[in-house]
Amino acid sequence: MAIVRACWFVLALLLSAPVWAYQTRIVSIPSAAMQRSFDATVVLPDDYARGNHAARFPVIYVLHGSGGSYADWTSNTHIGKLADRYHVVLVMPDGGHESWYIDSPFDRNSRYETYVGSEVVSYIDTHFRTIASREARAITGLSMGGFGALRIALDRQETFGAAGSISGAVDPRNCEDEPGIAHVFGDPARHASFWNSNAIVDSAQDFEHAHIALTIDCGVSDFFVQSNRTLHEKLVELGVPHDYAERPGGHTWSYWSNSIRYQVLFFATGFQRAGWHPQVA
Question: Which fold has domain 20-280?
Answer without folding.
Answer: Rossmann fold (3.40.50)
